[in-house]
Write a structure and sequence with these properties.
The protein is of the alpha+beta class. It has one domain. It contains three helices and five strands, in the order βααββαββ. Strands 1, 2, 3, 4 and 5 form a five-stranded mixed β-sheet that branches. β4 and β5 form a beta hairpin. The longest helix has 23 residues.
Length: 119
Amino acid sequence: FLLDATHLHEQLKQVDVIVTEPYMGPLVNEVQTTTADKIKDLARGLDKLYRGSFRSWSQILPKGGRVVITLPSFRHENHEIKTISVDTITSLGYNYISAVPYGKPGATVIRNITILEKN
C-alpha cells in the first residue's frame, strides 16, 4: 500500500513500534542560503506533518508502544529553530523518553533521534 504517515491507521490495525526518519525539508544547502523567516515557515509545515503522523500512530500503537523518530531542528545564525516541541508531542498522548542530537559541526540540520512511548 502507498500512503503517507498521517494515514497509516487506515491500513494497519496495530503495531508495537514505529521507527522513522520522516521528511525533514529541502536539501541542506537550500536551507543555508535562506532567511530565518523561511526556515520558520518550513518548521511550521513540518510541525503540521508530524502532528498528523502522531495522531494517526496513536490509533495503532498500544499503550506502551514506542516511537523512535528523527526530528529535525535547524541552525540559523547561532539560533536553533525547532520543528515540534516536546510539549506538543506529550499533548498528543506520548511520554518523552529521551533524545540524542546528531549533527556535524557547522551543520544546518540537527537530527534529534527521539524515543517516545504512547500513554
